Fold these 2 entries.
Entry 1:
Amino acid sequence: MATSLRLVAHGHTAALRRARFGAPDDGLDEGGLRAVLAQAHGDPGRRGHLGLHDTCLSSPAAAARQTAETFGLVPTIETALADCDYGDWSGRSLEEVAGTHPQALREWLAAPDSAPHGGESVTAVRDRVGGWLDEQRGAGRRIIAVAHPLVIRIVVVHALDLPTATYRHLDVEPLAVVRLTSPGTRWQLRLGAQLPA
């Protein structure tokens, strides 16, 4: 059986709305929770049900766990799906970092290998997430994984064997669902699949 991986971006947090570098304890904000509830329990014709699955995994982040649980899922924490460790920038806004460390921010945005904040580089996140993704390829399971939008962008880049810097050209909205499938040899990105009713 082929492996089916549905990546679900967690709902809005205050950090996402304010363009702040996130922290693991950032939970869903009020609007984020309302949006997840609406998608999970809305009009049956457009229901946010995520379909049959063998396992549900979640980033350790509070927002990811809350998103999964609000969908009625029972997630197992997968540390490989954790958001980037932003080091000294955690909780700070992009604007604030640009004002106090403009060169460091330019370096971080331009070079996936850099980590001027003292945390993880984007390349390190790809190594972590990519290793996990490679292990799932031949699992033959239906997996739902709830994670941060940045992590999902990096998963897609790794799955398609693209240069790491390509992640900057991908946008993943909160509650977006990205589907990957694999017969065991490579990943295939499935676009346009409707959520099951």
Entry 2:
Amino acid sequence: MNVAVLNSPLTAQDLVTPDFWLAINPDLHVMDLPFINATTPFNIGADLARKARELVVREGYFHLPGPIPWRLSIEAMRNAVGHLKDRGLSPVFAYAYDEFWVIFARLHHLIKAILGDDYMLLPDFWAWHVDPRAGEAGWSPHRDKGQRSLFPDGTPKSLTIWLPLSNANPLNGCMYVLPADRDKTYHTDNEWQWAPHLPDIRALPATAGDVFCWNQAVLHWGARSSPRATEPRVSIAFEFQLAKVEPFNQPLMKALTIPSMDSRISLICKQIVQYKHMYPLSPELEALAMERLSTSS
């Protein structure tokens, strides 16, 4: 099946061809093994690890502000998401590039500090390009997996990490959260009947390259942008879970996994299908994703 991308046909074979993606974003890497193998997670101190664990339980989220030693071009990653959208492709195709896997691998020690040593990557990730000129918004209020993702004592079984690749503020659609300790239906059987006291809602403005972690029961959403915003809100997210609990989704991947080209494209197509209720999707792109999944299963 072909899908028109700026009047050029896109085929299933294009999706697994590194040169196709490099032609769109030549400043990034695709299956560049020396680049991938040079990845080393950055360390965090004991005080930061303790603070992250405490806040993810008490308030439901943790913010690690920059500067962060990414050793990656956040600007090139941000531009890449825009280039994909300009060509009629879903922003989630950003995960065709090595950088979008490497950046989460570099957070290995932070993830371990919150979840524990034995964690897995979930096949749940996304990328957003919220355009103020079009009045776009992030995803509406939701809990990623709800109270089933918490142990009885409130510690998390799973975790979402959200990374802004642009500055994020109330005008271009930054994230908002209802802190867990102010959420009357958090970790209850009535968790889907939220009715927040408006002053308890908290905006999460951020600088490009910051890190946000939240447990998967906390209520959060992306705001609608304003035409007064000076730049789009571009961001990415990935989900993780403890290995010792039942999988929330499959296939799970070991920590620090950087998938092969075939695997990452299959995983991207899985995202397109499983999140079609959250993000606009053309019938042609959905059909191409379904074709890819049917041939790779």
